[in-house]
Amino acid sequence: MKTARMLVVCLAVSAAPAALAQKWEFGGAGGYGFNTSKDATRPTEKATAKIKPGVAGSAWLSNNTSLRWGGEIRYDYQRGDLQLKQGSTEANFSAETHAIHYDFQWHATDADSASRPYVAFGGGVKVFRGTGTEQLTQPLSRFALLTKTQEVQGMLSIGAGIKTKINDRWQFRIDVHDYITPFPKDVITPNLGTNIGGMMHSIVPTVGISWTK
Amino acid sequence: MELRMLRKSTILALAGSLLMTGAALAGTFGKVVPIGGAAADVALDEARGKLYVANFTGRRIDVMSLATNTITTSISVAAQPSSLAVSPDGRWLLIAHYGNNTAPASPTNNITVIDLRNNNSKQTFALANPPLGLAFGIDNKALIVTTKDFISFDPSLGTTQVITTITEQATKAIPQPAQSAPAQFSQASVGASADGRYIWGFADSLLFKYQATNHIITAGYYTASPIMAPRVVSVANDGSRAAMGWWMMDLYNDYPRPYAQFPEPLGDLALGGHQIDSARGLIYSEVPRLLTDAPMLTVRDIDNLTVRERLQLAEHLAGRSVMTTDGATMYASSASGVTVLPVGKLNTVPRLEASVEDLSFQGNFCDRDAATQSFIVRDPGGAKVPFTISSSNSGVRLTPSSGVTPAVIKVTVDPNAFAAQKGTVAVTLTITSDTAVNAVNSVRVLVNSREPDQRGTFINSPGKLVDLVADPAKDQYYVLRQDKNQVLVYDGANNTVKATLRTCSVPRGMAISYDRRYLMVGCKEGRTVSVFDLETLQPSTSITTRNANIQSIAATAHGILAVGFDHSSGDWGVYSLDMNTRTGDRLPTLGVWENKVPENTVVTAASNGASALIASPDGSLFVYDSNVNTFTVSRKDFTTFAGAYAASSFGDYVIGNQLFNSSGVPVRLIQPTNGVSSGFTFVDQNGYFVTASDATSAGVISKVDAPTGLGFRPTRFVEAPILPTDLEPFTRTVAPLYSRGSIIALTVSGITVLPSGYDASVVSPNIARVVSAADGVSAIAPGGLFSIYGTNLSPTNVATKEIPLPTALGDSCLTVNGQPVPIIFVSPGQINGQMPYQTVGNVTLIVHTPGGVSDNYNLTVPATAPAIFRAEVTPGAAFPTVVRAANNLMATDTNPVHRNDVLVIYLTGLGKVSPFVENGRPAPSDPLATTVAQPEVNIGGIGAPVLFSGLAPGQVGLYQLNVTVPGNAPKGLGIPLNIVANGVTHTVNVRVVE
Fold first, then answer.
1. Is A187 part of the contact surface with chain B (CB cutoff 8 Å)?
2. What's the Cα-to-Cα distance from B423 to each of B1, B628, B849, rounded to whole Å?
């Protein structure tokens, strides 16, 4: 798995030189991420498992391949503790995610426009890392085990945003992404007899700035 | 003020001389510097490096060099220099000459002043009366005490001023019979504090304290029996206390007050001495009890005279001592002149001590093999000191019997040699040396040979235990240790000492105040009653009784009664103690009767405080009624009383083995008596009665129905209770805990704990199954810990922390093929123990209890049977004791095993180890004991390298496997962790993550 993950990264990076002849954009943004929760169900009871909301940060390298099309490779970091909750009982465990993905972008206006709304879609990988301190016991452990480990999941990315020129070199960007991954069952491990399934959405609005050339 | 002191002390007039007593000793402490005469006094001149010695018969002042400890010169002076002192400014040496000559000779009482800064020029001044002593105050003026007055003398002017006159003090005229020592002429001693602010002194009937800063003398007269001796005063650096003869004095409202006394003094004016070491809180003393006592310097705590050390001297001390400012050296007048005692360098002189006070061997009906324990003989300073050691009983063997410190002494006890005694035999181990200077405390070896019907468990508590009181509000009890001046506070839940409280000198009796807040302790050699706050277990203000040694105390609802020796009148009386003023006074009468009771009388109160009983060894008694606050009964229906004494809340009393009604009329004998009465305690309308035939027999406890006096179900327990003696005829040795879950008894070895249901009928034990203690399922291997499940396996629940593990616990023991098995825990349904390392193959296991012997239980013991212990992390959730080295926590689902982790697995059943470890003994740490079999470990089928396989150091029967988790171990919940040893596999499941 570790080898495969590195291969994806290398492919994405190696794709970049082909676009260097076009107009480039390098930027970063900050925001806040929200994650959808999942039910952890046992035969007679259930709890909610999720990654709590947390601050997010991104960095990207984009290029425009045509007047309307472009693409970018993007790294996203998000804080978000693992959480199990049933009524007033909850278990928390420090965690974070790292994602790297390539998105295709279609802009609603031409490249020289002052304002360029766009939509994006693409894919990549997301690394979930449990970083908390392991304890002998954990509340609600009959549902799931919040674990100090890391796992890698494939990720779909869809998003939309708008780029606004500040001057010839700088532009302002607002966007929102939905990162879709399978539920991370290594860091939130369902205990025996517990079902936690489905996909998890991570909605991350960010505000950023980029430098263009 | 009149201070009178009388002391009853029986002195055996044994033949002998002072000189012969010093000859037989081996190593001695200090160096004797003979002066060819009789030293009457010494004075230190540290600035000049000199010690001045008043040579009473040599008519000179011998000057000793502090550097060489030799007499370098002498200063000729007038006849009989009896007292001397150096002024604080170092200029004047003042000498008093005792010249109380009889006709036809004329008196030659005078003083000599030597100017130490002017070629030792001398001036002599005549005195009208014989001088008793002198000392310099901080003002460089000397206080001279004569038989008729106190005189202030200014050496720079040569002027004298009478401060006050006193009743003429008796002195001896010259000549006196042959062999009379200087102290037997003047019969007085005067000494100053190091700061020169206070001067204390005493003569034949006078004692005083002089404050040099305001020239106020506080004086009084006293009488004492035996006479106040040695006739020496030594004063604390700040003058706040002083030792005078066999008295320890302090200041109470600025008046001298005796607060403690040396035990059983001989009363020879010229024999002994003492010196207070204020910096260390000690007093170095020789206050002999008998003429034949060997010369011995005893190091004691200054507050309660607790003996710290006893050092053999070459000869007896014979007068005053002085100490260097740095506390390094004490110079003491002694028989030959001066003895130089390097008290500040005790660690450099050869001494011996044993690492234990007691060694306890609890034999039992399972184990008749010889048992061995060890202790260390060492020098406290770490030196190599040769010694020999011997046993008072041939059943106790010592290896080696001689050696050089530090040395480990193995003590081997043959239980068969003690089989005839069903209690505890105390064997004395005596350590001697030709080199060591101290008197070495002996070691007590306690050998118990109980039989199956003997109940209770004893807990060793060394020393002389003389009283027992249970807390009336919590499961806590108090034991009085007389030889160390301590109250031992025991936690009734686990019978361990939770606090140790320092008492007055030689404590004898205790009582708890009616409000349950304070514990009071009366002392045989102390003039105060120690008081402790039971909430904080800290000392509270003590009760001052001025002239009494309170020895027995009882708290009634109306007030506190006490019995003690009254030094004012020389007899015993009853006192009332006031907790508000913290004072005690002798009652004027006991109701309509005189307040006089015989020696060693005791008092005890009913638990409801309504009444109190006073019992005397001459067979008399008093009853006190709290409702009318007076004594309502005084009777003497017997010629002697001894043993137990108790009062009930229902108006019944017990003395010895006799029951009395509320009128103190004997109503019936407790039947059966079962030996010598030792203890009785009322519980509601009934009671527990404790007796024994003798000190080496079993104890017997009976429940007594007080209305009928019938003792029923007398039950033998493990050892005899403390029995009465001539000196301490009354004993209080049994007490139920507040919760009544256990009964505590003072016994030969210390404490014996009996369950309240000690007399419950018992049935034979029955073994249902025998399994590994680790998981309750696996087989048992040699050296492994195992559990027996069944019924009636023990009458009580007891766990031990004793190492090595005992082979009997809580009245139960077990054998495997006849070999005794070390036991950790017993309860009615379960016994945990260690399978002996020698056991393998088909074996038979038998449990012995007071109820009988179990049927044979046959089982097979394989060479290995690994089983990992389980620990309950949360209720109902047990996990194997697999510990992650990364965070030192047990691996659980929420603390999962990570790939490449190092795991420490605690288990049992890995069989024999190398080097060999004895059964019941902890595993060594150097070298480590490794398993003979080499176990393999895999996780999810992937081999995990074993880093260590052996016994966990310091533990009994507990093995430890250290392994590394393979990097490719499968991940997930419930991954099997397999341990394979000799083809036997044990599996637990663990969670493994990345």
1. no
2. 54, 46, 18
- Beta partners for residue B566, in sequence order: B548, B571
Cβ of B433 under 8 Å from any chain A Cβ? no
Q: Measured in whole angstroms, how far is the alpha carbon of residue B102 from the centre of its chain? A: 52
Structure token digits, residue B150: 């106190």
Contact B873 A137 (CB under 8 A): yes
How far does the CA of residue A109 sit from the closest CA of chain B (Å)?
48
Q: How far is A184 from chain B (nearest CA, A)?
A: 14
Q: Which of residues 850-879 of B touch A (CB under 8 A)?
A: 873-874, 877
Is A185 touching B (CB cutoff 8 A)?
no
DSSP secondary structure of B475-527 = SEEEEEETTTTEEEEEETTTTEEEEEEE-SSSEEEEEE-TTS-EEEEEESSBS
Nearest neighbour of B994 by CB, restricted to A145, A146, A150: A150
Greatest extent of chain B over all pairs of C-alpha atoms, in Å: 117
Helix or strand holding residue B399 (H, E): strand B396-399
In terms of DSSP bridges, do strands B457-460 and B750-755 run parallel, antiparallel, or are they unpaired?
Answer: antiparallel
**Mean pLDDT, chain B cut into blocks of 10 residues (994 residues total):** 37 31 64 95 96 95 97 95 96 94 87 94 92 95 94 94 86 83 83 95 92 91 89 95 95 87 91 96 96 95 96 96 97 96 95 96 73 94 96 95 96 88 94 95 93 86 97 96 97 93 97 97 94 97 90 97 93 96 96 96 97 98 97 97 96 95 93 86 92 95 87 90 96 96 96 90 88 94 96 87 85 87 93 94 91 91 95 86 95 94 96 94 93 95 96 95 96 94 94 94
- B671 secondary structure, DSSP code: B
Give CB contacts under 8 A, 24+ apart, made by B583-589.
Answer: B583/B543, B583/B544, B583/B545, B584/B529, B584/B543, B584/B544, B584/B545, B584/B546, B584/B548, B584/B550, B585/B545, B586/B548
> Across the interface, which of A136, A186, A192 has its CB nearest the CB of B894?
A136
- Which among B777, B775, B792, B787 has a CA at the least distance from the CA of B829? B792
- Residue type at position B856: N
Distance in angstroms (rounded) separating the CA atoms of residues A97 and A68: 31
Q: How many CA atoms lie within 13 A of B828 on its CB side?
A: 7
Chain B contacts of A135, Cβ < 8 Å?
889, 894-895
Q: Give the span between the Cα atoms of B163 and B170, in whole angstroms.
A: 20
Residue A131's contacts (CB-CB under 8 Å, 6 or more residues apart) are A94, A95, A96, A148
pTM of the model: 0.70
Tell me the HSE value of B127 on the side-chain side, using a 13 A CA sphere: 30
Q: What is the number of H-type helices and E-type strands within chain B?
A: 2, 93
C-alpha distance from A146 to closest chain B C-alpha (Å) = 7
Q: Look at residue A19 and give its three-state secondary structure.
A: helix
Distance, CA of B9 to CA of B468 (rounded, Å): 27
| Chain B: closest CA distance from residue A195 (Å) | 14
> Dihedral of CA A71/A74/A80/A83: which sign?
positive
| Chain A contact set for B887 (CB, 8 A) | 134
Which residues are registered as beta bridge partners of B659? B654, B668
d(CA B298, CA B382): 21
Max CA distance (Å), chain A: 62
Model ipTM value: 0.83
Interface contact A131, partner B, CB < 8 A = no
Residue type, B25: L
Closest CA in chain A for residue B883: A136
Triad A85, A86, A91: Cα angle to 5°: 35
